[in-house]
Amino acid sequence: MKNSIAHRIADFLKDFPPFNFLNAEELLNISQESEVLYVDKGNILFREGEQMHDFFYIVHKGAIQLQKFKNEQYETLDTCDEGDIFGLRPLFAEENYIMNAIAEEESIVYGIPINQFKPLTESNKKVGNFLIQSFATNTRNPYAREDKGKLFFGNQVVEPISNSPLFELQPAPIIKKIVTTSPETTIKSAAQLMSRRKVGSILVTKTDIPVGILTDEDFRNSIATGDYSIDTTVDKIMSSPVVCYPKNVTIAQAQITMMKHNINHICITEDGTPNTRVVGILSEHDIMVSQGNSPSVLMKAIQRSRSTKELKKIRNKINLLLGGYIQNNIPLTHISKLIFELNDATIKRVISRCVIKLQQEPPVSFAWLSMGSQGRKEQLLQTDQDNAIIFADPPEGKLEETRAYFLQLATKVNKRLMIVGYEYCPADMMAKNPRWCLSLSEWKAQVSKWIKEPGPDEILLSNIFFDYDITFGDSRLSNILSDYILKLIDNHPKFLSVMGSNALRNPSPLGFFRQFLVEQDGEKKDFFDLKKRGLQPLTESARLLILSYKIKNLSNTAERFDRLAQLEPKNKELFEGCSYASKALLKFRTRQGLQNRDSGRFIDLSKLNKEDKMKLKRAFKSIKAVQDLIKVRFETVNVI
Amino acid sequence: MLDWFKKDESHLPEFWQKYSAKFDNNRKDQLIAETTFVVLDTETTGFDQDKDRILSIGCVKVSNNKLLVSDSFEIYLKQEKFNPDTVEIHGLIKHERFETITEEKALQLFLKYIGNSVLVAHHAGFDINMINAAMKRNQLPKLKNQVLDTGVLYRKTRIISNFIDQHKNYTLDEIALAYNIDLKDRHTAIGDAFITAIAFLKILGRLKRKKLKELFKK
What residue stretches are annotated with the Exonuclease domain (chain B) (predicted)? Predict the structure, then answer.
């Protein structure tokens, strides 16, 4: 019988080592006996000590984390994403697995049959070598990623392991796909080559021997100043001689050399002198990137990223960073700010890349609003995306045409954000939904409907939409809308009192005997809902109070309470308590979420220790206090 | 069950009787993780279940979050009835390229393959009706398997909210987009069956139900 699925699998495999070394027939035979696995987030594919499977694995979609139990906790050895292979142990040793493979996110994994594959590792040297190296180095791909251009195929570099404490002593990451030119080339054509290849520097070589290096800076100093014409040959302006090193140079050596000579690049030659063949180049930027998880490096990496996949990898690093911060008990205000900025940069980068992809300038100015937790700068874990677009009123008769452009843009952006890791909003509150991609006038009409006739749905929508933060575009648009909203609320006092009763619908999370109120039924029966009973009442109270003071552009819950404490000295203590509670609960949720690889929303009380329970109870006291204040101040009416 | 309550099937062909005999056990407490699902799709000459015919059937078997590539099912039928309008959609040209078999032989192989598994298809009603119409033409009773529809199941994964249409019919393309599934080989029976299978696994992951019967609840 024909087997089209095997073809489909083979077509995927052929792009990744070691499968790229196989011929079509071998690939198809392997694929025919393969399996396709679905691994839900947090599920374990194999665990330490488990018997070998008949398959080894390659990630098709998603990410699988390899971890080992060390010093009483799980340590991540590696994260495999699309095209990475893992679970190789059964190919080499008749032993049980020595690590866990756990799904970092929902994943589709292909299982490759070991019985069919093993003969190929023996008959095909390249396949065998690749697998041995993968297995031995414990990294899935012994070739540096940049190596895929295969310019100097065969000299493998091991990727430095950035979280190692001895990072500086690791071999430096060498780029082997380098752009070179000859000394006789004109400056003009060298510049053209550089912009075509999108590089900031170019190596000048003579029969593969490095004679000089040319950087953007040289152009600035020699051409832009008028000292040389663009028809001069490059040897007149290049920096020479080139600083060279052999290829096992450590990161520490490279950094010191760069500092000493005030240069950004080091040339790697066969014996480390300028007299032998070039084998690669080392740049300051790449060292920074391999250093990995520092916020400034991640920020740069986001701004330079060229693909959604790259952004996704950076996002995974951001999560590691977040985990480290929470573990080391860094103040939440600091964590939120950093993570917000990184999130914000990611979304900005996605939007600006999509605008370019559309190959058409936006017809009118627009603002991309992030709402919900990202809008409040409280999105630490990746949760859902909530967003909307406001576009300036287009000329008459052009409304739908204009909307069509922004819907197209939003569809692209929403999809890419989903791939990066922000799931689609389950209630479709996203800019790609025509209901939330509106002109400024339409938005005004929309919000005035909510404020003038506040029913349950209208309040729910206001709660989501009124916490926006402008992520991209023209802030005048969002400011006009904010002013409009505040003015309307002023004229319709009923709105705030309905919003107030809504904020009270989830009363104090502690029961009469100071026990926790848990969910009564459903899938989460007996779990405590931290969002509904803890964070949400605080968020809603803060929003209501801050709206009543007509303050715009302040959407973070803790910051709102801090401002309220300044505004009302007599309630200072109460509001400061709320500010503290909202930070404490958010941190608690983040820690829970990181631990359980979920949104951290539902808490299994039986797993909490006494101290945590006390902390939660203390936070809940503040909720009760602020709710009492609202009850009195807004004369809440029962409409819900 | 009492014997006289059973229909007499002795006049039916042996392959039917073998198939039919597999449906005795009680599945009240069966777990999803222990159930074999056959995810299927058919390509047809059109949408009329009396006049149109099945051109191909593609199936994959899913159990315990796994799909074995070697255990997939892909057949192409010899059909005299032929509608040139729909050929372009699925690129199946009459008799071309593929080894084709008769409708009767196809049903025989299909019944042997599916056994008593739970059938899954996107907008399953259509595919099941087309297969049952073919069964009828070949003097066979209707399929006895339980059937799940990924269109209906997907709707269950969506939250209950006034802001989304609770009755919307989702196309396979929409679900694939939402779940980021590649649309390779779309509009071939086996290609669509594979896409549906991945969607089905992702839906099960989201629904987090344990028992099979919970999937059939309204």
Answer: 36-209
Distance of CA A302 to the CA centre of its chain: 9
Pick from B75, B164, B185: CB nearest A428: B164
Are A163 and A277 contacting, i.e. CB atoms less than 8 angstroms apart? no
Chain B (113-142) residues lying within 8 Å, Cβ to Cβ, of chain A: none
* Sign of the C-alpha dihedral computed for residues A360, A361, A366 and A369 taken in this order: positive
What is d(CA A243, CA A272) in angstroms, rounded to the nearest whole number?
9
Interface check A82 vs B, CB under 8 A: no
DSSP A531: I
What is the separation of C-alpha B217 from the centre of its chain, rounded to a whole number of angstroms? Answer: 19
Please give the backbone phi and psi of residue A110, each rounded to the nearest 5 degrees, phi first.
Answer: -100, 135
Within-domain flag for B7: no
**Inter-chain CB proximity A8 and B194 less than 8 Å:** yes
- The answer as to whether B14 is a domain residue is no
Q: What is the distance in angstroms between the Cα of A8 and the nearest Cα belonging to chain B?
A: 8
Rounded CA separation A625/A578 (Å): 9
Which residues in chain A touch residue B161, judged by CB atoms under 8 angstroms apart? 426-427
Six token digits for residue A32: 């025919």
- pLDDT, tens only, A474-511: 999 999 999 999 999 999 988 998 888 888 887 766 66
Tell if the pTM clears 0.80, that is, is over it: no
d(CA A513, CA A502): 25
Buried b (16+ CB within 10 A) or exposed e, A606-617: eebeeeeeebbe
Question: Could you give the number of structural domains in chain B?
Answer: 1
Strand B147-149 vs strand B118-121: parallel, antiparallel, or unpaired?
parallel
Mean pLDDT is highest, among A41-50, A267-276, A551-560, B105-114, for: B105-114
The answer to whether residue B20 neighbours chain A at the CB level (below 8 Å) is no
Task: Say which residue, A165 or A529, is predicted with more confidence.
Answer: A529
For residue range A376-418, list pLDDT tens digits in order: 988 888 778 999 999 999 999 999 999 999 999 999 999 999 9
A525: number of Cβ within 10 Å: 9
Q: Does A115 touch chain B (CB under 8 A)?
A: no
Tell me the C-alpha distance between A238 and A199, whole Å.
16
Across A287-296, average pLDDT:
66
Give the range with max mean pLDDT: A210-219, A310-319, B145-154. B145-154
B209 lies in some domain: yes
Beta carbons within 10 angstroms of residue B119's beta carbon: 20
Report how far residue A346's alpha carbon sits from residue A315's, in angstroms, rounded to the nearest whole number.
Answer: 8
Q: Is B185 on the interface with A (CB under 8 A)?
A: yes
Does any domain span residue B21? no
| Of A107-111, A131-135, B102-106, the least confident | A131-135
Distance from CA of B140 to the nearest CA of A (A): 25
Q: Backbone dihedral region of A586: left (phi > 0), alpha (psi from -120 to 50 degrees) or beta? A: alpha
Q: What is the domain extent for residue B91?
A: 36-215
Return d(Cα A74, Cα A70) in angstroms, integer. Answer: 6
In whole angstroms, what is the distance from residue A315 CA to residue A293 CA? Answer: 10
The CA radius of gyration of chain A, in Å to the nearest whole number, is 29
Assess whether pLDDT exceeds 50 at residue A159. no
Cis peptide before A507 (omega within 30 of 0): no
Is residue A310 within 8 Å of residue A318, measured between CB atoms? no
